[in-house]
Design brief:
2 copies of one chain form a homodimer. By secondary structure, the first copy, chain A, is α/β, with parallel strands linked by helices. The first copy, chain A, contains 19 helices and 13 strands. In chain A, the strands form 4 sheets. A 7-stranded mixed beta sheet of chain A has the order 1-2-3-6-7-9-11, with helices on both faces. In chain A, strands 4-5 form a two-stranded antiparallel sheet. A two-stranded antiparallel ribbon of chain A has the order 8-10. In chain A, a hairpin with a 7-residue loop joins β4 and β5. In chain A, α1 runs antiparallel to α4. The longest helix of chain A is centred in the first third of the chain and has 19 residues. In chain A, 44% of the residues are buried. Chains A and B meet through β13 of A and β11 of B.
Chain lengths: 532, 532
């Protein structure tokens, strides 16, 4: 969709007739490039004014486009197949632990957290940074793995587990963090496929909100290892590169006190929307997260601890992470704030980027070369257009990326199929696999990478068939139905503690943190009958 | 596919231009019927010879076609929705047992087994017959539920469970039968999508054979209830109405000693193929099943018991059931033999039907009106063409159905969507649901039907959304992958007793039957290294 729109745009610029492409798999790149060279009208009055700029622009667009969709040579996988004994590899891998002992990084956490913009840490990738990136990526992945996607479920759009059990249920018990707060979001603009629950579900836990992420904080052991108390916000994104990105590209709107900094209206709507008539968004996601982060920062600072804030997210979640970082930097000056995002789209304009930088927010964007989402919005109108100012005029409406980039390539991994797969290229598990195997741009896949390769296929079909891992295998037994004592297949009731509640204050976790969660003032007016 | 072919055929007969239909969902029936009336050429030399027959044929085809694809009125489901309180229905159903106490039918088993051709038992449907039909249908369903569909599995195409545990694993422990033998089949003709295992699986349990069904026998308790020792053969079919039915319609070939009886070559190939180089088909499915049935009949007759043979199957399995019945009747004269089939295609010609009848085989075909498979092969060239003998000439090549028919209608159930759904209409669970609810052609769905409604959606999307049952919910947790002690997602090894073995002789079951299974003579030459 995005690609065909892009193709049409390109043709319109050239005033060449649009060719109806049979599909993204077989875009006739050579034909298009040949077309450009011959078909750019030199004397056409309508285009004369900007013909030079247009020509250069078209060339650049074609180049950009080529980058998006080039696929590896056909014999790519065969080559690997010849040198890899898949069966023995599988056997060997199956009995290798996925984790190594964790290094102590307390003496270099500032650098790993981006204090120098990750200079000299990305290529080659510093082993300690690699592990930290994967750690934060797994926080983002947790927001997918625990999400209730069942559109017939009364809890569709919520987290399937209580926050005190989230990491345990996902096999992340030993990650050294504890969840302190769930974040919910709604939106004041209509976003297709964002609220997927069926209209038939009248007893829904919420009609307007989705579970959008969580706040967690390092425990004492992890805090000693990493040299500071680390507060993490993890934002949920979208699993597949869906069309609603297009819908969200409506307009940039101002953010903060500056008149110049602008961000995408759709992202901002999710981050800031609230409504007194809802159960979970009497306060906005922004208010929820800032209240919790402020509380935690205050609590640990009062104890004399060094504190950092790390915000992570994939896709849409990466966009929300930047908005969150912007607000946190303005609200909590002096706090070291980093964003580690995966496959995130552009969020705002150049002034937004500059203000983030001035406030000291450090951003590391992990981007897979073949993934299209991190090129959106602003697939065409982005920072690369600065040289075309005869066309673009002002840069106020030009989207731009922020911070340092760790660029990954699907072709670097011998375990991945190279064929065009928009969902697979965008999948967070593909990102984490590629981070785990990345040494440097000039060397091959890390031979001693330990992350379980099978995870890549959880929600896509990216692994070479030789590995014999089913595609999209992450699924519940019988889609959650169980056979009851009468022999009937029913959806079991959730454990009461796993039922979302806007007034939840779970004592397990807060006991261990010596914190008492405060009820949300807005929510304390809730009718008792509403609390289920 | 079949439908569009059918549409083209109809048009060719009328010599009217073919209209490219947008899809099976919106076949322009009225237009077609209108077309016929005006477009039949009266004077065209090419068609004059058979114009009268062709016209009548076209009319008949249109009528047939109309029967296939007519959908219920648009407000069908809405009407039901207005009178059904889905939530309270769901609550109530969830706590109602799915089984009633079984009646003793020992005094009327001959009639229920078809001794009088099920006369006066089908409309209204006798309650005891209804339960027996469902019982046999669940044997057929078991062949789907236990089949290993995983194309990456080394056991793809086998049964996932040992025969002594089959019913237990599927929640059918109390059905009163015990499995004594598994049947394997291969084919000497190429049947697309029949052997689905990946070419990458070099360690496959078998390269040529599929698990194709089982033989089971009633235990003492059930034998007393039903009045005889009941030997059952259950044949596996295909879950969806796949295109390979078309491929199998190659030619009729002779069967048995008669020169006239003919059956479809493809079905016969599956039933009779064998090869000494295979592991599981050194003997054919026919030889395997006849050896076991003969053994069981002899064993129980020697004990002075009354014995019956009931053969069941859905889809392709129903076709194999008829071939099996034909052979059994010829081999074991005097044995009461019934076939109860579900959505089975036509198998042979009229002589085949007549011979089956003469040998005393009783056949009850359960057919859903909207299902297309039971109209194949011979969707057009079948017994309804007897009146068009100026066109068809001889009837030797005309497919025909056999026996009595229990006709069901998707629209009779308020729980089912009416919209065109070829997979759903053909699904065996849909059939069993409709049998369970059938009273008579003139009355509505049985209000006290107890079979669990959720089962319908196991492998399709037929239930109205109001029931909030996920579609295609019958699935393994994580497609069978489990996280091992190293944190890696792997396919666990099968329990040794669940690994298929051509020489299997399980003592559990045979102890309880006081039978010692004899090793297959062919298989006893197997190299020890082959037995895994």
């Amino acid at each position: 969709m995005a690609l065909s729109t892009a193709m049409n745009m390109m043709y319109n610029i050239n005033h060449a007739p649009a060719i109806h492409s049979a599909g993204v798999n077989c875009l006739p790149l050579q034909t298009i490039q040949g077309h450009q060279k011959t078909a750019v009208p030199v004397d056409c009055p309508q285009t004369k004014k900007s013909s030079k700029g247009a020509s250069r622009l078209a060339e650049s667009l074609s180049h950009l486009l080529h980058l998006h969709i080039d696929t590896p040579p056909r014999n790519h996988n065969n080559e690997h197949a010849q040198i890899i004994n898949w069966n023995s590899l599988t056997e060997e891998k199956h009995s290798t632990p996925t984790k190594s002992p964790k290094e102590i990084i307390s003496h270099k956490w500032h650098e790993l957290h981006g204090s120098k913009g990750w200079e000299n840490l990305l290529d080659p990738l510093h082993p300690c940074l690699r592990r930290e990136i994967v750690k934060y990526g797994e926080f983002a992945q947790a927001t997918y793995d625990a999400f209730d996607y069942d559109s017939f479920s009364e809890y569709c759009g919520s987290c399937r587990f209580n926050k005190s059990k989230l990491f345990e249920k996902l096999g992340l018990s030993n990650n050294g963090y504890q969840v302190t707060k769930y974040i919910y979001a709604m939106s004041h603009i209509e976003i297709p496929s964002w609220l997927e629950r069926s209209h038939l579900v009248h007893d829904s836990w919420s009609k307007h909100s989705n579970w959008m992420g969580f706040v967690c904080v390092s425990d004492d052991h992890e805090t000693r290892r990493i040299g500071r108390r680390d507060i993490v916000v993890s934002w949920r994104g979208t699993v597949s590169p869906s069309e609603w990105y297009e819908d969200m590209q409506r307009k940039l709107e101002p953010i903060g006190s500056s008149a110049e900094a602008k961000v995408e209206h759709g992202f901002q709507s999710i981050y800031t929307s609230k409504s007194p008539s809802t159960r979970y968004n009497k306060s906005s996601a922004s208010e929820q997260v800032m209240k919790e982060v402020t509380r935690l920062v205050q609590f640990y600072k009062d104890k004399g601890e060094e504190v950092s804030l790390t915000i992570t997210g994939h896709s849409l979640g990466g966009a929300l992470a930047l908005l969150n970082a912007y607000e946190a930097a303005a609200t909590l000056p002096g706090l070291p704030i980093s964003v580690i995002s995966f496959g995130a789209p552009r969020v705002g304009n150049i002034a937004f980027r500059d203000e983030l930088h001035q406030m000291g927010v450090r951003t590391l964007r992990v981007a897979v070369k073949q993934d299209i989402v991190h090129r959106m919005p602003g697939l065409f109108f982005n920072e690369s257009l600065q040289k075309f100012d005869d066309i673009t005029g002002t840069l106020e409406w030009v989207y731009t990326h922020v911070g340092a980039e760790l660029k990954l390539d699907v072709r670097s991994s011998p375990y991945l199929k190279g064929s065009l797969n928009l969902t697979g290229f965008h999948s967070l598990e593909t990102y984490l696999h590629l981070v785990d195997g990345f040494l440097s741009t000039s060397t091959g896949f890390r031979s001693n990478a330990r992350r379980d390769i099978a995870l890549v296929n959880k929600a896509c079909d990216m692994l070479v068939d030789e590995l014999r891992i089913p595609h999209c295998w992450y699924q519940l037994s019988n889609k959650g139905l169980v056979c009851n004592e009468h022999g009937r297949w029913v959806k079991p009731k959730r454990d009461p503690e796993d039922i979302p509640s806007p007034t939840a204050h779970d004592h397990h976790i807060h006991h261990s943190l010596h914190l008492i969660d405060q009820l949300d003032d807005n929510n304390s007016q809730l009718q008792p009958s509403y609390v289920f």
